[in-house]
Amino acid sequence: MARYFDFDTLNTNFRTECVAGLTTFLSMAYILFVNPAVLSLASVPDAGGLGMPRDAVFTATALAAAFGSLVMGLLARFPIAQAPGMGLNAFFAFSVVLGMGIDWQTALAGTFVSGVIFMALSLSSLREKIIDAIPADLKHAVAAGVGLFIAFIGLTSAGIIVNDDALLVGLAPLTDPHTLLAIFGLVVTVILMTTGVTSAIFLGMVATAIVGMATGLVGLPEHILGRVPDVGPVAGAAISRLPDVFTPHMLVVVATMLFVDFFDSAGTLMAVARQAGLIKDNKLPRAGRALFADALATTVSGLIGTSSTTAYIESASGVAAGGRSGFTAVVVGVLFLLALFFSPLLAVVTQAVTAPALIVVGVLMAGSLRHIDWHHFEVAVPAFLTVLLMPLTYSIATGIALGFIVYPVSMVAARRGRDIHPLMYALAVLFLLYFVFLRV
């Protein structure tokens, strides 16, 4: 095992890798409870049964995270864990299912198809061409926009931001006990994050749940350990809906899933690998394997019954604890399998408990704003529209589409048309046709 994972070359050992894996797992364990809440549309009281079965999604989330982390560790041998991605799950639930009215079974089929396409790109030379074609500013804008969108969902599910007939949205009176519990959780999580506490988001959720149970705002769980919830209601549901994916609306959905997953994964892989000192000559060794592992995990996620799986930036916490090899990710995968037996704790994970996690994750993703070239107006405008319109239209796809349409227009107006890759012109035309003929 030590030889396969290059312990000696990487100057690491079994104990260090185990501690690093545990650290990464605790840093991202919140996804076990947040992902089922998002995909079940728990924050939308009038969802009308559109959301996915929460217990089944819990099992699917754990299985997808375990598979993704194991394949990353064993195949690519990087200390990078995977799980259903924040932002991708929000797009799945709020933009596709709730916004476009597409049933979750078909959305899962779209997830599966996007994973298959991702695998094909990972095995071909098109990977580098696509990465080079999309301007870095728009990549950062998409990440930041998704962050604002997630934070907005968290604020509304906490009851902090509410509907206002005169102003569209407004600040709630902040007197509801559940809203106050969410605010408490947010303050605790912010303090933990600010002081550099490992697993701050997860510990913030634990503290909020404990206070909620102590005050009677959150019901006590009947058990701590229990049977693994049946994944049957969601597993394999995508297969029968594959023919429904090849419609204009769903092709836009698949393209958006692919875009967000592709660049989120590439960015996370480079960031964590750089921190671990694994970058050689400004290149990531075995990058193709890493992206293929991510794509394979997304494909399997669609079959298991959850939204796209992606590399987690929280893996950086494990690297900080000394993780250098793929064995760190293997440990994370095993821990996610063990977590399957803690499903009774879902009962205490209410909207007030998950809302702070959504808001803080949104803050972290919004950090990409600093990488955008705000000094050039022709770049700032499409980037700004991408970021702003995701939360305002309640649609990640709309934000991406409008940003990609405006970008070539503003660049040509600035006499920088030669700086635009031909693929960007093609994407702009396709998105424009989408709004003219398909958007309803």
From TrEMBL:
It is found in: Cell membrane. Keywords: Cell membrane, Membrane, Transmembrane, Transmembrane helix, Transport. InterPro entries: Azg-like (IPR045018), Azg-like_bact_archaea (IPR026033), NCS2 (IPR006043). The keyword Transmembrane helix applies. The chain crosses the membrane at residues 20-44, 56-76, 83-102, 108-126, 138-162, 174-193, 250-271, 325-346, 353-372, 384-407, 419-437. It is a multi-pass membrane protein. The keyword Transmembrane applies. PANTHER family: GUANINE_HYPOXANTHINE PERMEASE PBUG, XANTHINE/URACIL PERMEASE C887.17-RELATED. Belongs to the nucleobase:cation symporter-2 (NCS2) (TC 2.A.40) family. Azg-like subfamily. This is NCS2 family permease.
